C-alpha cells in the first residue's frame, strides 16, 4: 500500500482512544463507572501507555496498533496512546459515569498536544442517562478540541445505531463486516489504513448516509447466510463497481433512541457526493425489499422443546435473554422446559445466578442443594457436577486470547438436564464457556445457549439444527412488545 509521502517533514502524530458500550435501554438499572473499570469479559480501563498492552491481541485496538506501528517503524507515524474504556453490554450508562469518561478522554487529548489524527474505537450504540447518542456527542467534543484539520476515523460495532452527529464529525466510520464478529482485528487494521490514506492524500472522503425505516432484531442480522448476508454482498458489489467504501450497520434494536436501526454510510473519493448518494439510495431501497425475510419467528420454550428430534444435535438459541445484548441471563424458562420434557443429554449455558453458584461452591462437587424456581411450589434439588473459578482464556474465532472472569461457576444436574451457572452475565459464545467446567459440545444432543448469533462462530458447526427461542414467551402467546418512546417518527419496530 502506498499511503505515505516519500519524505514527510515530521512524523504524523496519531492519537488512539476507545469508548465501547452497547446499551440496552430496556433493561432495569444503570451501568456505573466500575463496569468499565473492571469488566468481567474484557480488558480493564486503560490510560496512556497502558493501551499498548493491547498490542498483538486479536482485538480492534490490536489491529489498529499493529497497522500503525508497522508504519511507525519507518518513522513516519508517532502513535500517541490516550485512553480506552469498554464494558459488557448492559443497561443505560449512569450519567455521571458517562460525563466522567468523556472528561477523562478530553483531558488526555489536551495533554497529548497537537495531533494530526485521531483513531477512535467505538461501539456506536452507547446511551447514557441524559445522552441518547454518546458516540455522536464524543466525536463532536473531540472535533471541537482538535479542530477541522485533524483527521478522525472511528471503528464501529456492526450493531451501531449511527447518528447524523457520528457521520458528520468523523471523516470516516469503519464498522465490523461480520456477525458473529470474527473480524474485530481486521476492522482495526482497516480503520488504521483508511486513516493513513486520508493523511497521505490530505483529502477527506465525500459521504452520503441513509437509515432504514424499520428496526431489525439481532437474530436476523447473521451475516453468514440469509437476507443480511445477501444485502452485505450487494453492498460489497456496489462498492467494488463504483469505487466506494461502505459502512453498513445492522443497528441495535434494544435501544429506545432516535437513531436506532440499520444504516448505511457511503464514502467516495473527494468530489464523489453524487455517486455516494445514488449508492446509498439504491441500496436502502434494496434493503426494503428484503424486509419480509428479515422477520424472525421465535418459539416459546415448550414449543421449541416439542420440536426436538431424537439423535439430532439441536441448538436452542435463547435469543431474548442474551447477556451479549445487555439482558440479565437469569431466565430459567428453557431449563424448566427441558427438565419437564425429560430431555436427555441436554445442557443450558450460561445462567447468571450468583446465589446458585455460591450454593454450589458451598456444597462442593458431588454435593446437593435446593433452589426456588419461579412458578414452582416445591423447591428444586440440584446436584453439583463440577466447580470452577470462572476464569478462562478464549480460544474461539471471535474472542481468541481474551480473558473471561465470570466469578464462581458450576455445572449442575437437575434430573436429565445440566446447567452452567456463573456469577456474572457473560455470553456463552466461546468453547471456554463449557470447557471451564469440564464440558464439551460432543457430550450433548441439545445445547441451549443464551446468545443471539455469536454462538454460531464456535458452536454452529456442531449443530444440525438451530431453533430460536424467546424465553419470555408462554406457548400460544405473541412476543412481548417493547415500548419505544424516543425512536424517530415513522420507524417500524420490526421488519
Ligand atoms: Zn455487536
- Label the overall shape: globular
Tally of extended strands? Answer: 19
In spatial order, strands of the major sheet run: 12-13-16-17-11-18-10-19
C-alpha termini separation: 41 Å
Query: What is the number of domains?
Result: 2
Percent of residues in beta strands? 15-25%
Give the proportion of residues in helices: 25-40%
Q: Which runs of at least 5 residues are low in confidence (pLDDT < 50)? A: none
Arithmetic mean pLDDT:
94
Class from helix and strand fractions: alpha/beta
Radius of gyration: 23 Å
Oligomeric composition of the shown chains: single chain
Describe this structure in words.
The protein has 495 residues and is an alpha/beta fold. 28% of the residues lie in helices and 21% in strands. It is built from 13 helices and 19 strands. Helix 2 crosses helix 6. The longest helix has 18 residues, at 95-112. It is globular, with a radius of gyration of 23 Å. 54% of the residues are buried. The model has no long low-confidence stretch (mean pLDDT 94). The structure holds zinc ion. Zinc ion (ZN) is lined by residues 157-159, 181.
Q: Any descriptors?
A:
alpha/beta; 2 domains; eight-stranded mixed sheet; six-stranded mixed sheet
Topology:
Blueprint: E1 12-20, H1 33-37, E2 46-47, H2 60-72, E3 77-86, H3 95-112, E4 117-122, H4 134-146, E5 151-156, H5 164-169, E6 172-175, H6 184-201, E7 206-211, H7 227-242, E8 245-249, E9 263-268, H8 273-289, H9 301-306, E10 314-318, H10 333-340, E11 346-352, H11 354-363, E12 368-371, E13 380-388, E14 391-393, E15 403-405, E16 409-414, E17 417-422, H12 432-435, E18 446-449, H13 455-459, E19 465-469
Parallel strand pairs: 1-3, 1-4, 4-5, 5-6, 10-18, 10-19, 11-17, 11-18
Antiparallel strand pairs: 2-3, 7-9, 8-9, 12-13, 13-16, 14-15, 16-17
Helix pairs in contact: 2-6, 3-4, 7-8
Zinc ion is lined by residues 157-159, 181.
